[in-house]
């Protein structure tokens, strides 16, 4: 049996959804059994063209627009704008019509924000204060105020907290922890000086306590606070004959007490 070869044509779609474009096709030389053969085995004089022009009809141009922008003012009457363009609709099956003869959508519109003369009240909070505990869990606070703002006059003043929305009031207190508690040095106040003049000393009790305030030995001894220090280092003065002290009078002898006993003053 002799198999004859003939041309098989597969046509592709147009390159554009509307207007004039081009479409291509695949042309192969095949036998009656469907086998693809070299082009020379077919009659090349009747070989179809691989590409041709195509016309999908008039393109449907439609109005496209963006969302409205922000109002031009923070209070009172202002203007909002948007972009409006006439562009080709790629999906020509939609009944969008044409830009020609169809009213162009507005590019601007008026907007009315909150009245400028109205004192709108809002919550304002200050920075957090220091933690109440040097270590472990403590609390810290901040100021929270209800403030009325007059936008037109650019002024503000504190008002009653009832003027602000209660459901969104910021917290004025929160928990805090600077660092975990470890053993630390504690001390009492200083005692009275042992002497009123001629040098004395005063003392205080220094103790190492852990995070449960129990006596501990885990404190750093290099930073242990002093438990004794000198005081009343100024020299004593001899009372004047009238019983009143004289700051201009100073001792001329090292052992002033013995001189007084010897009645040499």
UniProtKB/TrEMBL annotation:
SMART domains membership: TSP1 (SM00209)
Superkingdom of origin: Eukaryota
A Gene Ontology term for the protein's cellular component: extracellular matrix
Gene Ontology molecular function: any one: metalloendopeptidase activity
Signal peptide: 1-21
Tagged with keyword Membrane: no
Keywords for the protein's UniProt record, in alphabetical order: Repeat, Secreted, Signal
Pfam families, alphabetized: TSP1_ADAMTS
Any GO BP annotation: proteolysis
InterPro entries, per the entry: ADAMTS_ADAMTS-like, TSP1_rpt, TSP1_rpt_sf
Location(s) in or outside the cell: Secreted
Repeat keyword on record: yes
PANTHER family with a match to the protein in the record: ADAM METALLOPEPTIDASE WITH THROMBOSPONDIN TYPE 1 MOTIF B, ISOFORM B, ADAMTS A DISINTEGRIN AND METALLOPROTEASE WITH THROMBOSPONDIN MOTIFS PROTEASE
Protein name in the entry: THSD4 protein
Organism: Branchiostoma lanceolatum (Common lancelet)
Gene that produces this protein: THSD4
């Amino acid at each position: 049996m002799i198999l004859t070869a003939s041309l098989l044509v597969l046509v592709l779609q147009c390159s554009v959804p509307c207007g004039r474009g081009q479409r291509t096709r695949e042309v192969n030389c095949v036998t009656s059994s469907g086998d693809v053969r070299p082009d020379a085995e077919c009659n090349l004089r009747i070989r179809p063209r691989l590409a041709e022009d195509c016309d999908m009809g008039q393109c449907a141009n439609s109005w496209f627009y963006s969302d409205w922008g922000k109002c031009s003012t923070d209070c009172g009457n202002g203007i909002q704008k948007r972009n409006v363009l006439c562009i080709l609709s790629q999906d020509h099956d939609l009944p969008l019509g044409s830009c020609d003869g169809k009213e162009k959508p507005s590019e601007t519109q008026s907007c009315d924000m909150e009245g400028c003369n109205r004192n709108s009240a809002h919550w304002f909070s200050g920075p957090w204060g220091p933690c109440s505990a040097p270590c472990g869990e403590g609390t810290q606070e901040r100021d929270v105020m209800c403030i009325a703002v007059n936008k037109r006059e650019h002024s503000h003043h504190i008002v009653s907290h009832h003027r602000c929305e209660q459901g969104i009031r910021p917290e004025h207190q929160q928990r805090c922890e600077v660092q975990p508690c470890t053993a630390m040095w504690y001390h009492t106040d200083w005692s009275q000086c042992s002497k009123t003049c001629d040098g004395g000393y005063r003392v205080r009790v220094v103790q190492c306590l852990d995070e449960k305030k129990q006596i501990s030995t885990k404190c750093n001894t290099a930073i242990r606070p002093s438990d004794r220090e000198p005081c009343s280092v100024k020299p004593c003065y001899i009372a004047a004959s009238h019983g009143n002290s004289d700051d201009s009078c100073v001792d001329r002898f090292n052992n002033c007490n013995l001189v007084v006993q010897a009645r040499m003053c």
